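*Target chain*
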Amino acid sequence: MDAWYLIQTKPRQETLAKNNLQRQGFNIYLPMAPTRRRKRGKAYYLPGPMFPLYLFIYLNDGIDDWGPIRSTIGVSKLVYFGRIPARVPSGLIDTLKGREDVEGLQIIPDNNFDVGDKVLISQGIFEGYEAIVHAKSEQKRSLLLLSLIESFIKIELDSHSLDHLKD
C-alpha cells in the first residue's frame, strides 16, 4: 500500500537527508517555511524546515526496499509507533503542498491581533505573561500593555511572539 511516512533526521541535516534519499530514488517532501533568526539583536527570516528534524517519505510497503533508509547520511531513523511505521495522512501532505507560495515556502497566516485583544507572550523574557494589545505597527509588531507588580508597562514585541489567549 502506498502511503506517506515520517522520517526523523539528524539535527540540522533535513536537506542533506532529503537530497541523499532523492538520489536513491525515494519520493521525499520537506515542507519549508520562513523561520525567524536573530543576529546582533535584529530579527530576520530565512527559509528553513517547517518541522525541524523531520521529513516525509512516500513508500509502497510491498515494493520499496526500506533497508537503505536508516543508513542514509542525514537520516536518524524511520519513525515508528510501537512496531508500526508512522503513517502520515495523505490529506496532511496535500494541505501542506497547497499552502506553498511560488518559491515553495509555506504561507503561514499572520496572527491577526486587534487592539484590545488579550494575548499570551510565547517567546522572550516575558514568555508566559499575559498582556493586552494597545496598538499595532506596520512591521508586524504590537505595542502591549503588560501588567507587572500591579501597574501596566508598555512593551513592543514581534507579533510572532504572541498567541491569542483562550478565555
Notes: The two ends are 44 Å apart (CA to CA). The first strand starts at residue 2 and ends at 9.
